[in-house]
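User: Sequence in, structure out. Go.
Assistant: Echoing your sequence, followed by the structure tokens.
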Amino acid sequence: MALIDPKGLRATPYPLPFHRLIESFRSLPGIGIKTATKLAFHLLKVPEEEVERLARELGRLREELVLCPTCQNIMEQTLEETSTCALCCDLSRDGSTIMVVEDVQTLYAVERSGEFRGLYHVLMGRLSPLEGITPEALRIRELHARVETGEVHELIIATSPTTEGEATALYLSRLFKPMGLRVSRIAFGIPIGLELEYVDDITLIRSVEARRPM
């Protein structure tokens, strides 16, 4: 089978098993034809034990990881059905504040900063009517259950500054504000060291709106 690049300029007659491997890599986000081919050739060069180890880890990934029943973060599967992830179990964190994020990647991006000491809630997506993603498709019901305990006083909405992310933030604000919660939105500012003339209009407006006293 020939492997055709995205522009259709040429076909490379790779053997079928190699072609399938490249196509598998290409299905991953951010992986193009060149990177996929490079990864495939790399696996041909490394020792067989390393390839087998990679295959084992990929197989174990879905078997040993589950979602935290409280915040929807990923966690290692345990025998206890009521167990939660390490973040939810951390008694030093502020349980009255929950940051709502779209996905687990964002959760860990915030966590790496070490600045936020509250808890999290992962929506597992964002509203997108055109793609059929409605509120019922997100983990909003689980968030509502956490709020109903009366222990949560503030929700920090940290969805992306896209049309879908803004729609999700607005929906959550309208849903939870009537429950007496403080609902805030993360600010979107200007990166340090970037000249203002290169900043897009929306980011510039948002940075002005999110200004604070000096």
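User: And one key feature?
Assistant: The first strand starts at residue 3 and ends at 4.
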